[in-house]
Amino acid sequence: MLNIAFIAHDRKKEEMVNFVTAYEPIFAGHQLYSTGTTGQRIMDQTNLSIHRFCSGPLGGDQQIGALVAQNEMDLIIFLRDPLMAQPHEPDIIALLRLCDVQGIPVATNVASAELLVRALARGDFAWRELVHKYKPETVE
């Protein structure tokens, strides 16, 4: 079972709900997290149980980032709106940086999300062991 987070900017929330609904049977076998509104909208349209954090602008991105920093997140699907400025852009950049540091796969659009979820469905997610095998012990 993997820990998977869903985040979607306002103009991408419907797209996220449609995506998660399409892959509901795959996500059902995992521990799910989300920022507030995104998680509520997904739960309203599916039978999935999702641990909801605050909305992104109110700290939800940072709460998910804390799990990434503690190496407790396995996959993030973050449907970003590249055409709209976000007031909490520094939080978004910090989350993406943490994912890069920890080697956590992040899908920022439906095409990359499709690839990751299809790999998940096939069981091709042994990347966690590979990341830990080749990762330096500490960075100072």
TrEMBL record:
E.C. number(s) listed in UniProt: 4.2.3.3
Matching SMART domains: MGS
GO molecular function: methylglyoxal synthase activity
Active site feature: 61
Residues that, per the record, bind substrate: 9, 13, 35-38, 55-56, 88
Catalytic activity: dihydroxyacetone phosphate = methylglyoxal + phosphate
Gene3D superfamilies assigned to the protein according to its UniProt record, in alphabetical order: Methylglyoxal synthase-like domain
Source organism superkingdom: Bacteria
Entry keywords, A to Z: Lyase
A Pfam match: MGS
Domain MGS-like: start-end pairs: 1-140
PANTHER family: METHYLGLYOXAL SYNTHASE (PTHR30492:SF0)
Similarity remark: Belongs to the methylglyoxal synthase family.
Role this protein plays: Catalyzes the formation of methylglyoxal from dihydroxyacetone phosphate.
Protein name per UniProt: Methylglyoxal synthase
Record organism: Paenibacillus yanchengensis
Gene name tied to this protein: mgsA
